[in-house]
Amino acid sequence: MNNTKHRSPFAIAARLIVLVRPMLPIMLAAIVMGVIGHFCATFITIFGGFALLTAAGLPSPLAGVNTAFVCILVFALLRGVLRYAEQASNHYIAFKLLALIRDKVFGALRRLTPAKLEGRDRGDLISLITADIEQLEVFYAHTISPVCIAILCVTGMTCFTARYHILPALVLLAGYLLVGIALPVWSARRGDIAAREYRQALADTNSYLLESLRGLRDILQYQNTAARAEGITAHSETLGEKQKAMKYREGVTVGAANTLIVLTALAVLGVSIRLYQNGQLGAEGVLVCTLSALSSFGPVVALANLGASLTQVFASADRVLDLLVRVRVCHCEYDRILRHCFDHFRFQCACYGHTDKYVRTDEGISQCSALILKVCDIAEHLLVIFNADSAVFVEDSVLITCDDVLYACRKQHLDDRGSGRSRSV
Fold it and tell me: What is the pTM of this model?
């Protein structure tokens, strides 16, 4: 599975988002609760500014200081409840979909083993089934709804700030775009290769350790414990170095996000003061615009932090999808399969799900058996792998995945084995 060609992040995200469709109502509820919760958190600070304006006798939308304190208390309570409900909904979706993905992966392994995975490291498989799929939780629980929440919150806060003046709102919007889009894209591009190397190093370490445990008797018999221990140490050090490099990139991303937030707040404050000096903005506008810049970056910071996390998510998802696409099963008729065989000298689809005419009758079984022999004769330069409990493969393409046909083909190939007609046994 160490393919040199990888899918783009957009292609991976599109494949993963499709699975959310059955749980769309829960996702929409999580987005609504997240938007309301973030607005509550933001307006706690803003209503504190309203209280200061009221106490100072400056224009304020509140009637008194007590009203501000009551609103702040309500916002704080709602923030806690909505935050819990949003996270519960997101993780419910995530764990349901992880169970579905695991089911698909085990189904793929059942169809591919033992022929296709005969030489595959067991530790690599364990890493894919456990750690790689667990990484997808970040995408389903901390990516889809936070992106939607950030878009709605940015739109709302930009409009709210624009009520006082358009220039502070534009400066604030520029800060949102830098932190929420430019920074995560930059971080993801910097860490994409490192994330793939880390996931592969983790799989290699698991494979090496599992092989050491399974071969412990042989290691002791041939007195190879010292060399094996050095190998485990070398794998662990390599994994630690790659993890350290990734943590460093995550730290740089967090520091850059905090720096951009402070610079944006200072820019909004500077523009607001300039407008106040020109008589285009009141004192209450300067305070509210500045507080909005300081308190409304929560949803955007969540996106900034995703830049480093999603590199590992996409690397893991690429490994999972690479396994799943090996079992492309098409419902097609015998003549279409035969045409593919002679036109391309290989099969790009499988005869799985045939009608009884082609699968369960003696005529259909003999036709498919003869077809495999024709493929073996035509494609002499291709390696055809045959297993009774698995599928027939021509290079990376699935040839046959029907148990009934395989059983008949096995009998046919056993009969022809001595004559040398079949290259697949």
Answer: 0.69
